[in-house]
TrEMBL record, chains A, B:
The keyword Amino-acid biosynthesis applies. The modification N6-(pyridoxal phosphate)lysine is found at residue 203. It comes from Bergeriella denitrificans. One of its GO terms (biological process) is L-serine biosynthetic process. SUPFAM superfamilies: PLP-dependent transferases (SSF53383). This is Phosphoserine aminotransferase. PANTHER family: PHOSPHOSERINE AMINOTRANSFERASE. It is found in: Cytoplasm. Binds 1 pyridoxal phosphate per subunit. L-glutamate binds at residue 44. Homodimer. One of its GO terms (molecular function) is pyridoxal phosphate binding.
């Protein structure tokens, strides 16, 4: 094993705070004197219900979730939410609007029509116009005020795009449905601007296997009775999250991450750190005289997933290989995009970003 | 904390082998010298793909899964499989058959029609005839040979019923689809007798959050193209289980359980132990002169979930409370059934069953 620290830049499942892993390790065979591992607890036991409710309360507190929003910890990932959102919220509507700004929102747009009668209308497209290098401003979205909802992704993990100002619609417009998987808890947001937020845990929340859903209560009236209970938001709300056995251990781990985030000063504090981390990497790219490139419009650059490349695929490969040997791991870009991608979620310490910036300078000295 | 051991009789999430938990504890911050926690590994990394493929191979070896069956580790629990099975396998069929023998197969029967055009036909019912105290013999099932499939649950967790001889259909009959959640890996079975087997992990496999699906390859041709990719078995097969991020840590834990089961001598050996455990508890019930009762037809008694009761709900409550204090935990029966339920899956050691039998005798001496 290397003596120098390892930094994990995976886009997800991603790095977790070391303090969280140490707590999980200590409690593995005996949670809080119960004599049980969390994995062995009946989901309906007081022991586990306590863990679940605590996690929910901490998330509510971190994100300032108003009382008229319900919180669920579901299974199936964000991918399942593409269809659950459409099945539950578009019933009886002629149309729902979808904004396509990269890999994930495109997939949502493609999948959402499959279990709903509503037509999914392409409300804005970052591809044809911008080749996923810029984001269509919310004022340019072509929205029907009678649409069931407007779906978008606030951060595109693959393409490295993020809305710097979180989109907001005026009163009387349809509810915003947002895939926030790769940025939730990374900055302060106003939950009341959304109808539904969903997020796969494996980036900024916890381990893979749990999906956080935050839904405005009045929208639950739309959930049709003739869809399977397991895909119905209202079933899960009515059963206090226990309609079927949830992914108990991933929920427990998410709760530990929420508590860790509180010890870091909460979302406002981590947002400032995330700003600094992103600035450091983009400065390393922009200050390289063109040796490293990031082609995203500056105002649309993601603070979570920093994509960059050198002049050739061969040099990118060498960069990734050498970085691996220095303990800077999983920097390879998504297969359809290529190049490098540094995912710098909440749990990535500033030291990891510094180490990467230093290696970038060193690599350029040797190959530039 | 008590000095005497704690035995966890939860119906699921359930007890895990202590050796498995100790390995997980040791590897929490550094899996196999990688410097990563398993939870932090990209699901597409070689590190995690190795874990996944090893788990699959061990499961194939333990269950003697033939080469023409595919294995998936999905999310959403057995409950999601009710609808996935119907959506994927009943497309273009007029009818699918369902056998209802207790709580879980009844729920499957109720949910399966909701996303398929096929009519779900009640092929046999253990309720009206038997009040879930006996199982309809497979020879009495009313099956249409043109049905898409025949669904049943081999073990009813809530009601404490289990087919002693695993149902098998003759050649030319529809494929059997079996919910095997609460007994998979507890006894030898012939995979070739089934079209599809699914099992939520949280009883005999690992922690909650992963569902094992074993499917005969030729049935994949039925999967329609117009269902969401995330609910399509073929998508997951085509993408080598990586269509979306799977529940990586629960898969890793399941793999550890598979290896543990190999060290115990495999399924044949654990089956003998499971026989002995069940015999011990049923002998304690039957030998109590009526103080404890189990009303299931003897040939249909579950070897995984032993339900029993005393003469009154008050006495049941006292039993459960006193048992808790002796470290015999989570013996309360399912809310709709009442009484007691001792779930004695693979990971329950014989000592736990002995301790329960001794406590039963002691309790009877004091209250009988």
């Amino acid at each position: 094993m290397s003596v120098s620290p390892i930094y994990n830049f995976s886009a997800g499942p991603a790095v977790l705070p070391e303090a969280v892993l140490r707590t999980a390790q200590q409690e593995m065979l005996d949670y809080n004197g119960t004599g049980f591992s969390v994995m062995e607890m009946s989901h309906r036991s007081d022991m586990f219900m306590g863990i679940l409710h605590h996690a929910e309360q901490d998330l509510r507190s971190l994100l300032n979730i108003p009382a008229n929003y319900q919180v669920l910890f579901l299974q199936g990932g964000a991918t399942t939410q593409f269809n659950m959102a459409a099945m539950n919220l578009a019933h009886g509507f002629e149309r729902a609007d979808a904004v396509v700004t990269g890999n994930w929102s495109r997939l949502a747009y493609e999948q959402m029509p499959l279990l709903t009668d509503a037509r999914i209308h392409l409300a804005a497209h970052g591809g044809e116009q911008f080749d996923y290098k810029d984001l269509p401003p919310v004022d340019n979205w072509d929205i029907d005020r009678n649409a069931a909802f407007v779906h978008f992704a606030s951060n595109e993990t693959v393409n490295g795009l993020q809305y710097a100002d979180m989109p907001k619609l005026s009163d009387g417009m349809p509810p915003l449905v947002c895939d926030m998987s790769s940025e939730i808890l990374s900055r302060e947001i106003n939950i009341s601007d959304f109808g539904l937020i969903y997020a796969g845990a494996q980036k900024n929340i916890g381990p893979a296997g749990v999906t956080v859903v935050i839904i405005r209560e009045d929208l639950l009236e739309r959930c049709p009775k003739n869809i399977p209970a397991v895909f119905n938001y209202r079933t899960h709300i009515d059963k206090d999250g226990m309609y079927n056995t949830p992914a108990t251990y991933p929920i427990y781990m998410s709760g530990l991450v929420f508590r860790w985030l509180q010890t870091q000063g909460g979302v406002k504090k981590i947002e400032a750190l995330n700003e600094l981390k992103a600035q450091t990497l983009y400065a390393a790219i922009d200050g390289s005289g063109g040796f490293y490139r990031n082609d995203i419009a500056p105002h649309a650059r993601s603070k979570m997933n920093v994509v960059f490349q050198t002049a050739s695929a061969d040099l990118d490969k060498k960069f990734i290989q050498e970085a691996e040997l220095r303990g800077l791991r999983l920097l390879k870009g998504y297969k359809s995009v290529g190049g490098m991608r540094a995912s710098i979620y909440n749990a990535m310490p500033y030291a990891g970003v510094e180490a990467l910036a230093e290696f970038m300078a060193d690599f350029q000295r040797r190959y530039g």
